[in-house]
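Aim 2 progress update. The chain analyzed this quarter is reproduced below.
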Amino acid sequence: MKVAVYGKQFQQDVAPFVYELFLELEKAQMEVLVYEPFYNFLSKQIDLNLFLGTYNSYEELKKNIDLFISVGGDGTILDATTLIKDSEIPIMGVNTGRLGFLADVAKDQIPKTIQQLINKKFSIDQRTLIKLETDKELFGKLNFALNEVTISRKDTTSMITITTYINDQYLNSYWADGLIIATPTGSTGYSLSCGGPIVMPGSENFVITPVAPHNLNVRPLVISDKYVIKVKVEGRAKQFLVALDSRIQTLDAGIELTIKKESFKINMVETETQDFSSTLRNKLLWGLDKRN
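Predicted structure tokens:
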């Protein structure tokens, strides 16, 4: 098996677990490539003493990589999707911090998880992506997100007006600080913190969640991911912000945004140790009640 490893800088107390990951991959006789900027950081933090290759681009990954391992948190996986794109390479997230919804392999589960990979005791969970289209091509070819598209105010404390259409039918003009259009994966992110519902992966839905709406009777809305959403933003400012996960661009007032499902999906590795339901229970502390 040929494995690509991706990550960012980490605190020193995480180093032993990262070192253990590479040792387990070596024991399993896997060929390992490391994202070059991450490799350069690793070489100053731990003594690998292993032969590791490096990679830098999507073109290098799509040739013959069998598995992509993200080391970090959920944000690291979101960044990793811009490297993987439509290659269909499965992603496994090793969480080096708190338990994540995406990076759900805990540090102390690394040896057990690698053994499950060797024994093929895992499944693939396909995750829908959301796509943003504008006349100005704000994000170039990386105009997709795993979690959400977020529209928000810029350089003002005043609310903005986000006029929203679904399949060319007028839905609402949201008076709010912003608007989130989330995938099922993103339903446990920013949308959840703004009062949006949790949507199970594979539900084939999007969630439209207003951020601090002026009208308190405006509520999050779940729609089919087959629908096409169009929005225009207006307000006292001349510019606004639009974000795809953690990537942000400035948007001029009046420009129409088209938001719809991306044509490809991201494949997440789901091991026997951790599935989405158990992640929900652990992350949201469900069941911590003496009645259970």
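The mean pLDDT is 91. The two ends are 42 Å apart (CA to CA). These observations will guide the mutagenesis experiments scheduled for the next reporting period.
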